[in-house]
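so im writing up the methods section and need the 1-acyl-sn-glycerol-3-phosphate acyltransferase record in one place, dumping it here so i stop losing it
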Amino acid sequence: MQATPRRLKAKRLLLRRPDLDADAANWVAMLPPGRSMLRRLRALRRMVLVLLWALLAGLIQALLIALPGKAKIAFAKFYWMVNCRLIGMSVRVIGTPARRTADGRPIVYVSNHSSWLDIPVLGGKLEACFIAKEEVARWPLIGTLARLGRTVYVRRRRSSTARERDEMRDRLAGGDSLILFPEGTTSDGSRVLPFRSCFLSIAELPVTADGKPALVQPVSVVYDRLSGLPTGRVNRPLFAWYGDMDIGSHFWRLAQHRGLRATVLLHAALDPSAFASRKALAQATWAAAAEGAAMLRQNRPARPVVPDGAEQAAEAARPAYA
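--- predicted struct ---
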């Protein structure tokens, strides 16, 4: 029996894309009263726990930063990992994070970027500091947490380029690895925007005693589960944070859901010295990150991509024996 026009209209209302803000409120209103209240209570509980944990962790990290050693790096990773658990986000990792080489070459992790969620997801799995735009430092609470996480800020002005480059080189030479989002902005999660070659200038900086640069590892991040089911084009915007969205309302919508999962796909590391130009390096890292993200979005069995130039990086990462 064919569906009546009224039934077809009801189906269209239920299946329409939740394009956030006003539409998201309509979706919550369509839920039965009991379920809607439970969702709001879940979001409120998660918000309170995240704020309390941020206050406690901030005090601990402020003390660790004043002390020598790597405890501040390990605690920052622990902080982001706990954050993911508090908001109900599980994180699956495929592949192996590249490690500092025997001759002291650090790692620059280069990832696609679709949401503020990328920070706790990657921060909880990689022992590295983030590179962020200057505006992040002025965000309430997040700016404070970013500073405690020893984030490197960039201002995107010619007058400050040399100083920022020197700061990043000192960080890498001092033993820190860095996490970079070379798209320069967030996307809607349905594609990976081109990587800007200017962001990869840090990969050309000599950071070892013999003048070698850091290795570069492409990373793909995709939010592939919602309520325990595979995400698709319809519900992927729930995770994405872009345009003029504010982080408070975005967190509130997301925190009402259960069964959230992100997958981090770590590809083979690249040696910048194996590429003729910074533009070629940016293209190779983009191709790996985009291909990996496409595999994850399509819910295909994912595997790390081995782009051209990975062989040289693998050779450089082998320990040297006397």
